């Protein structure tokens, strides 16, 4: 009997190894923390509009399931993937699909928190588009759930570790190296403006008095709204123009804020800290449609500032300014021989920038639920000041506004039933 059992185990083992060349074996077959013999991870993508369809082909992963509330999007996704992919209408069905290892969330931001929380509780690893969550409270809950369940989380903005950083035209690690040397002094002021190479995309504004239209038959509009307040359907409210409405995102700041601000948080060393004062100069905002703004200023406890110049009034300003020197667009500086001096210092500490490897080894990804929460909070602090149109004071330790009931209501905003976190 022992010989028979041993032979059976050997046969199964050899069969799995042989089959690995032809099939993708989901990680659930082998148990949590193990990769399939194929060395690929299976992935389910929620939201397969233009953004979601752009994320099918990452090396080391295979898309095995897709989800959308628009049947037209599903058809386009099937075509892009060659057909035969499992379709879901309800994101919870995709998350609980045992063939899926990684849940990729590519929906409008008002869904990010709920979906990430469901995936975390279900033991799935998560790749989430920016911004991480639409509110500070949702971000807290996602961060706590991942800490509890041990998921690997990636937020999909990459500039802190990859590619040239917009108008600076160098990788962020080179900017961080300048800051870390102390050559610019301290505290620092960072100006994010069209003059320093950053476009705030003010075409992401909403329209007031939208016409009431009939939702197209291919779209489940009620499910698209989900936790957002019910508003009558209008074409401009959904899909490619949803960013212009407070219920789903936050205009140009919601769209580009985490791209622009996360690297600043990283090179300032603020990955576990929030500013204590947020000032805003803007027209009064509409209750539904996101508008534009002139300037938003964040101030940290140590005096560091981040200035968001919406209308490009900060002409000639340095990207980073300190008491000892300045760093301008294109990595130009008033510090003589900057490159030669910089070469004498060590590079910043290496980061885990391969998501598949992070999942394989259970190491935190470079931009994860912790530092990603803080850079998303920067975005949401600015949006709160903009919506209330006044200066806000924030307690970085408690992660709440100081003596401000109206602002604190924006941390945990109500959800339309039956949705809740």
TrEMBL record:
Keywords on record: Oxidoreductase
Positions of the Gfo/Idh/MocA-like oxidoreductase N-terminal domain: 44-155
Superkingdom of origin organism: Bacteria
Keyword Zinc-finger appears in the UniProt entry: no
Segments forming domain Gfo/Idh/MocA-like oxidoreductase bacterial type C-terminal: 168-420
Protein name per UniProt: Gfo/Idh/MocA family oxidoreductase
Species annotation: Sphingobacterium litopenaei
